[in-house]
Specification:
The chain is of the alpha/beta class. The chain has helices at residues 2-33, 56-72, 85-97, 114-122, 150-165, 184-197, 215-229, 241-254, 271-278, 293-304, 325-328; strands at 45-50, 75-80, 102-105, 127-130, 144-147, 172-178, 203-210, 235-238, 263-268, 284-287, 312-314, 319-321. Helices cover 46% and strands 18% of the residues. The strands form 2 sheets. Strands 2-1-3-4-5-11 form a 6-stranded parallel β-sheet, sandwiched between helices. Bound molecules: beta-D-galactofuranose.
Length: 334
Amino acid sequence: MRRALKLLAVLVLVSTLFSSAACSKVKEMKETQGSSPKNLQKKIVLGFSQVGAESDWRTANSESIKAAAREEGIELLFLNAQQKPENQVKDIRSFIVQQVDVIAFSPIVESGWDTVLKEAKLAGIPVIIMDRGIDTKDESLYETYIGSDFTEEGRKAGKWLLEKIGKSNEKVNVVELQGTFGSAPTNGRRDGFQEIIRGNPNIRIIRSLTGDFMRSKGKEIMEKFLKVEGDQIQVVYAHNDDMALGAIEAIEEYGLRPGKDIKIISIDAVKAAFEAMKAGKLNCTVECNPLQGPALMKAVKDLMEGRPLPKRIVIDEGIFPEETAEKEAVNRKY
Ligand code: GZL
């Protein structure tokens, strides 16, 4: 009798333990996905391969992606490729092995993606391109491309310079601090700027080197330009604010006044650029919006719920000349 009672007590204890474990699991899922029963579906798993951590823009972009994933209850596997395209290929292959629901990435450079994207397609995993674009003939390899129009950003920079120098017949020598060689923003910003200045024979790009979108490298190449061209430089065109800020340091150390002796225009419109404009050291920044996380997560959810996606989603952007800096600086989110 005593043995039977003991056995019964053990059975009751075990079943209580199991039911509370199951309850806590359901409770946990409910917490992560809302309370209605329909939400007790598996979480969407998104694998994202990021360019790196090379600039203030990139930091804001990564924060936007992570915050939006949390907001939407999407499980984010986030990998930093440290500006090496070969690392991004490895990242994408690891997402395929893990059988994520969607793969997204900002391709460091435009070319070389077809092979690995074909592997993702074979595995039945849809791919979203975000930020930088790719050069491919096979558009079936990705669902949509969310990002800026870099050529238009370059045109805006060129138009500002034309308006700035107006009708003067002065010779205007420009040195160009290019972004990462072979990347979509570098190619677009280079081509858009040249398309516009081509109309004015007084404006010439006399030197152009890549600073990889990094402040330290922007300073390094500006030092080189100053050594060989010195006071023959009237304008710096930097493909991003970080390199422009590095160039400002180099110009000051050389003994000239950035923003006055040498005009500077760059792209991104990060907070530090507004501070430099308020200090009179930068003359204009063209906006390139990094806050693309919400648009990415919306595309992921649309994809998973079977809603059609446009092949291209362009981010709207403006331009901020120095005279707008005081007023606009307080509004900046990145
Ligand atoms: C543009 C982005 C560029 C930024 C840089 O969308 O890919 O990369 O302009 C960043 O600041 O490094």
